[in-house]
Request: fold
Amino acid sequence: MELLKQRIIRDGIAIGKDTIKVDGFLNHQIDVALLEEIGKEFAERFKGCEINKILTVESSGIAVAVTSAKYFGYPPVVFAKKTAPNTMVEGCYEEEARSFTKGTVSVIRVSEKYIHPGDKVLILDDFLAHGEASLAMTKLIRKAGAEVAGIGIVIEKGFQIGSSKLRSKGFKVESLAIIEKIEDGKIIFADDENADADRDSE
Amino acid sequence: MELLKQRIIRDGIAIGKDTIKVDGFLNHQIDVALLEEIGKEFAERFKGCEINKILTVESSGIAVAVTSAKYFGYPPVVFAKKTAPNTMVEGCYEEEARSFTKGTVSVIRVSEKYIHPGDKVLILDDFLAHGEASLAMTKLIRKAGAEVAGIGIVIEKGFQIGSSKLRSKGFKVESLAIIEKIEDGKIIFADDENADADRDSE
Reply:
């Protein structure tokens, strides 16, 4: 998605070889107009999948999921929780998800009330790196007897294993920007001819 | 806001005398179409306030803020973070916020890059009870040299002190549904004539 790649190049900050900060438009400050374009693109890529529910995980997935919902005809958006609040007393599905960025393992939970057998659930998230969060969400969906309709990702770190891990399990994964590598502070996209041309000319 | 009150009556679950669960449409499963109506209502109530930024706090404020943004002309939405991720290395404004629901004190943070002197910032959140989260956000905004344009709340617990605490400091607070009390599992709104009539007839 060209608009997104341009924005990553303009405002993304590469740190070392494997970290990209996009908190200027995606996961701290949010550009809602850009997210609407992202939502339209997801709807295009998952057309015909008969999605009737969107699942994400707090916190930074929420903006992506909520903004995308209208382009899917306003299905309910459910976000998995990382903490068990006092008011979440009923039964819920639980899965562990490791965060390699933060070096933590968290339990993510969804109330049994909000995913049902027969649901066709689209997973949306802001980042895909090692794929642990997405994988945990696929397990939650299957525990509920529902179907994983697909996994939509805003930014995929193509140099980490998340995408191949998920695809090897048969899931349809659509990433709107795939970063092939970070080199000398420069972000190189996997399928970006211009980026390759830039590299050749340096 | 009548549509919201009806939804709270239909899907809200009263627990004891002071807890209302609305995770069927607001803070676990999200009804985006309802949130769009909420966003329109906020835009109406804060018309003329020249808002150029929206601030909320993760997680459940994000959906409200993001869905409201388009009715304010797409200002940037910033969400204060409750954890300090590895990738948030620059300077940030910090404030403590106590959660009476969870019995915890958390530090909320906003990067200095995303609130500036001269900004007119609207605070949006899903709940107002003791007002600690909103109050912490007003302090973050003022630390940045910016102006608090107002505070928009989806559901206010009118029987707790948050609203009067914030109003006594001169802030414009707009709550779309104000719960006066919870009585025998029934939710009574502060300015709802029908609810009063119902009570009279019981």
